[in-house]
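Q: I'm building a small set of examples for a reading group on sequence design. Run inverse folding on the following structure and report the sequence directly after it, with nothing in between.
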């Protein structure tokens, strides 16, 4: 196998892993073809993965989703200081991250979901205590 082809394959697998995508033929082919069309001069691996994520969001099933929606968490530290976390590939991965943050952070912290659709329209929603407590091992 040539050095260039091996590098492209390694980068393809790094993107699949970095984006949390399943290693299916469909996903591999899509990522591989995308990598072949890019010029990655002077870009780090993380910059390349971020570039792919910004143009190819996931659909929650480990597959690509071309809907263009982006998913974030608004974490309000101490109910005072807002922080934006994300983007996450799917709303499901974002919601799981919010539950984990709730377990690890101060009870005074607030968490909200932020979805931005393909047209750029934002939608903010709060997480209920029932949702946050749905994670096994949750304690207050």
């Amino acid at each position: 196998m040539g050095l260039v082809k091996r590098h492209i394959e390694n980068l393809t697998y790094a993107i699949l892993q970095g984006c949390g995508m399943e290693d299916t033929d469909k996903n591999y082919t899509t990522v591989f073809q995308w990598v072949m069309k890019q010029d990655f001069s002077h870009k780090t691996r993380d910059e390349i993965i971020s570039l792919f994520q910004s143009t190819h969001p996931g659909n929650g099933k480990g597959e690509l989703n071309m809907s263009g929606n982006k998913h974030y968490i608004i974490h309000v530290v101490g109910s005072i200081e807002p922080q934006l976390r994300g983007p996450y590939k799917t709303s499901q991965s974002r919601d799981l991250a919010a539950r984990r943050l709730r377990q690890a952070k101060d009870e005074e912290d607030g968490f909200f979901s932020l979805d931005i659709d393909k047209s750029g329209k934002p939608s903010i929603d709060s997480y209920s205590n029932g949702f946050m407590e749905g994670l096994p091992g949750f304690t207050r």
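The chain has a mean pLDDT of 76.
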